[in-house]
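Protocol step 6 of 9: fold each sequence in the batch and record its structure tokens directly after the sequence line. For illustration, a two-sequence batch is reproduced in full.

Sequence one:
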Amino acid sequence: MEKYLLLAMFCQVLLTFAVMIIMGRRRFSAARNKTISMQDFVTMKLDKAGDDVHVAGRNFVNQFEMPVLFFVASLAALQLNATGYVLIVLAWCFVISRIIHSIIHLGGNRVKMRYYSFLVSCLCVLAMWIQIVTQVFLM
């Protein structure tokens, strides 16, 4: 059971690296096209960069916000031997909703759809924590 939770965590890590690569490619493309200069990277003042550069940077930052609670919950579940089918399903729902969120954010960026995928991921992490606490204290 634990291996499926570890695999979900690994997929979230892969998503973070994929977004980092996309962000880097967009930034270097903007520099190559002279939209921004290499000097702009010294202070990360990328005001002149296009929206696609800012969106990729923002999505990369997103990978270190809510996913932190996912990773902590996953590690806590592993440490406390509180994994089970419900937790595994919630973990995979989190990762899938984060992938969908990134695809939307980095693609057409439809805000309403992006919001719903973000909300689903937040609810999954909350449910994971509730599941862990319930299993540890009530089971």
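Sequence two, same batch, same settings:
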Amino acid sequence: MPEGIGSDPRRKTTPGRWRVLGHPEGILIYEVRCIVESHGWTEPAVERFHNLILGRSGAYRRRLNGRTAFSDATSVLITRPGDEMSVSHPLGCGDSYTCVQVDPRVLAGRPDGARWLETAGWEGTSDASLDLAHRMLIAEFRRGLDHFEMAERLHRFLDGVLSRTGARDEPGTDLARAVSRRPATQAAHRRLADRAREVLTAGAYSLSLDAVAREVGASPHHLSRVFHRVTGSSLTAYRNRLRVRAVLDTLAESDERPLRAVAAEHGFADQAHLTRVVRDHVGHPPAHLRRLLAHTPRT
């Protein structure tokens, strides 16, 4: 493993529980569950490596190269050496994420290496297929792989990340920039969308649209329209994406809880509703996903 690979972009600023999942030559993959000691901003830290950070649960605010944004379980962040980042946890909860750290020489050897090396400070969202691939990758690493298989699986995973998150050749592309409005209006709309994301990420799955709109100080129609413009997603679709990710976390960590209890916890009408929504998003029913994501080590 090249010297230097192994320093986390948030390790200096955010306390938490860390676990290295694998480190084949030139690549490090690890998972983190943050512990919130303060809701304020951490000291800025300059990143030294190329990092792919994939959200799994919870939420936080990040200030990357002077720009503030909201990150949650759907977020994907790509950073490179020289980027400066600090984080805060305004909701009072921690977050969990996976980081894939790659040596630039490894990236340069990939057919899509130029896009990875040029992309900086980019945040997008993972679709359902990428999120499931991410979680299944973690489950496989937890069960145990040799370095050869680790490297092959990581490269295959990286193959689809840029296209499946919507990243383009231009660094920093995001949907909000495509809205042909004044910068001040764009910023206000982004803040409104982020505030709605905060409300929903806090686990307010039982709130109505009217209640969410009251929380953020907007009419339901205006909130729905702005949220779609900024994120490219309806509020309903975003809420379901959050719920499905929370369910996947629960299924990966527990073999014992009845599915009807999981459905009730995450605001589904019943077990059948849970099964239908999860299958629509990731193509498998919860019972099958529980087996796929189990952490039982290989014998």
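Proceed to step 7 once all outputs are recorded. Observation for sequence two: The chain has three domains: 16-173, 176-233, 237-292.
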